[in-house]
Structures are given as C-alpha cells and as structure tokens.
Amino acid sequence: MRIITGSRRGRRLETLEGISTRPTAEKVKEALFSAIQFDIEGRRVLDLFAGSGQLGLEALSRGAKSAAFVDASKDAMRIITANIAACDFAKESKTYRMDYNAFFLENRDRFDLVFIDPPYQSGLVWHALSKAAEVTNPGGTIICEHPANEKAPQESGNFSIYRQYQYGKVGLTFYRRKEMAETV
C-alpha cells in the first residue's frame, strides 16, 4: 500500500497482518480521491476506523490541513502512528485510540471530510454515519465504504446521498448536507 499522489506520493504504508483490518483497495482509493480531488485542499479530515490511516494520510498528502485518526485497536494505532511518522505528518495529525462512540462523546472538533470504513458486516457504518453528520461542517462530505450489496440510507441527519459508486464488492456512498446535495 502506498500514497497515490501529492506531497508524499509513493510513500509506502504499513498495514496490519491478518483479517481484522481490511485496507481500502488501491483501485477504490484512487476512484474515491478522484471523486473528491477538488474538495481536499485546506480541509479538516476525520478518518474513522482508520486501520492503517491510509485515507487520512492520502488526504494530507493532497493538501488537507489536518487529520484525526480514530481506531480502537492497539495494533492499528501502532501502525497508524508509524505511518504518520513515515510520512512526516505528525504536526497535522491527531490520533485517538478509542471506540468511535467514545470519540464522538469526547470530541469538540468539526470536520470537512469524514471517511467511515468499519469492518464489513460489523453493522457500524450507518450508526457511525449518524454520529459523523453531527460533527461535519456545512459544505462538508462524508464518505462511507461498505459492501456493495448493502443498501445505504438515503438520509442521515441533515445529510443525504449525492453520489454512489460500486467497485466489485465495494460500495462508496458520498453524503452532503441536503441543501448542498440537491445543487450538485
């Protein structure tokens, strides 16, 4: 796994061994970032269920202002911290080793770009979406990665679907505030 483009293009990233973490495939990551390429510069990013941190790090490489990485796993946090250091993004990054619910209870920050990519079949993606909608700025985007055969809710809070893509067995659903989604 590597950073695709931007200031850290080509940097290799560590991943966790085993089946507990499923990194976003290169093809899916490229498509995801192509879809939001003009919405990254200067943004505040939240990478939920961060795993290796690859989505938040890719956003930082492409000009995001800051990234918060949230994962409950001690092993995942070790990998995320190593990847942040390898990419020299310590100043732009905050890490939170905690459950996503605990993060939302403690968090006082707001974000412009949120990645939600929990383990498939965990049932967490849509619950996390409702929490993320509460901390996403107007004009912000929430991106959910989920099994392609799983139907995404049309709305969550003030957010509604504005784009959907399928790459093999992977679905990507993009949400924006209802008034923003209707103008796109």
Q: How would you describe this protein?
A:
The protein has 184 residues and is α/β, with parallel strands linked by helices. It has a single domain, classed as Rossmann fold (3-Layer(aba) Sandwich). The chain has 6 helices and 8 strands. The protein has an 8-stranded mixed sheet. The protein is globular, with a radius of gyration of 15 Å. The mean pLDDT is 90.
Features:
184 residues; alpha/beta; eight-stranded mixed sheet; 29% helix
In short:
This protein has 184 residues and is of the alpha/beta class. Helices cover 29% and strands 29% of the residues.
Widest sheet: strand ordering = 3-2-1-4-5-8-7-6
CATH architecture: 3-Layer(aba) Sandwich
Rg over CA atoms: 15 Å
Number of domains: 1
CATH H level, superfamily name: Vaccinia Virus protein VP39
Low-confidence stretches: none
How widely separated are the two ends? 32 Å
Shape: globular
The total count of helices amounts to 6
Biggest sheet statistics: 8 strands, mixed
At the first level of CATH, the class is Alpha Beta
Please provide the ordered H/E string of secondary-structure elements: HEHEHEHEHEEEEH
Mean pLDDT: 90
The strand count comes to: 8
Show the helix and strand layout.
Elements: H1 26-35, E1 44-48, H2 54-61, E2 66-71, H3 74-86, E3 93-97, H4 100-106, E4 111-116, H5 125-135, E5 136-147, E6 155-156, E7 159-167, E8 170-177, H6 178-181
Parallel strand pairs: 1-2, 1-4, 2-3, 4-5
Antiparallel strand pairs: 5-8, 6-7, 7-8
